[in-house]
Recover the amino acids of this structure.
């Protein structure tokens, strides 16, 4: 039993080091040797736990997406009102990408440059864990009559796309936008168009 806990602990140490280094340097800028060194383990042991660098990167991003999904879920439990839930979703989503899980922002910026299969797996996981929840919030708002009768999936894609534009611009536009300006733009301009009144 002790050996299993030790193996799992070592895997978590490697994953934590990978999350930190990938967040700092991205996929291409980080080597598996650097990750092993940062985790205090042998390079060969890294490949015992993860088949490849892409496998490790995927595990790192999935770990952060789990955290994002958990933070979103916690924020949504505060209200049943679709408008309040939409506001909470947007605020937490942006905060997670910019403050809580900075590796997600790096991944977003480099997604199109990743190996195609890796990029597809990350996009699919993102859609399952987060965009689907946003779609549910919008659909509930439509059913309740608070939101206009629009395509919930298209609205969720548009809101996510707008957030991603701000997130991709963020590193080069720090002085152009206040930290919460992107959230206000999404909520007070774009999401306001969903409301029936």
């Amino acid at each position: 039993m002790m050996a299993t806990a030790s193996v799992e602990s070592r895997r978590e140490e490697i994953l934590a080091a990978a999350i930190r280094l990938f967040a700092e340097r991205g996929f291409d800028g980080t080597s598996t040797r650097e990750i092993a060194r940062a985790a205090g383990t042998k390079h060969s042991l890294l490949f015992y736990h993860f088949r490849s660098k892409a496998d490790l990167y995927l595990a790192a991003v999935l770990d952060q997406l789990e955290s994002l999904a958990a933070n979103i879920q916690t924020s949504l439990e505060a209200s049943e009102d679709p408008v309040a839930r939409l506001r909470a979703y947007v605020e937490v989503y942006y905060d997670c990408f910019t403050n809580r899980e900075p590796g997600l922002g790096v991944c977003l910026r480099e997604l199109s440059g990743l190996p195609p299969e890796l990029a597809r797996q990350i996009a699919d996981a993102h859609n399952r864990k987060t965009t689907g929840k946003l779609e549910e919030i919008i659909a509930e708002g439509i059913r309740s009559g608070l939101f206009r009768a629009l395509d919930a999936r298209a609205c969720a894609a548009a809101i996510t796309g707008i957030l991603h534009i701000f997130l991709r611009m963020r590193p080069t536009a720090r002085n152009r936008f206040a930290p919460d300006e992107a959230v206000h733009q999404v909520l007070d301009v774009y999401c306001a168009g969903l409301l029936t009144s």
In short: The longest helix spans residues 116-144. The mean pLDDT is 90. The radius of gyration is 19 Å.
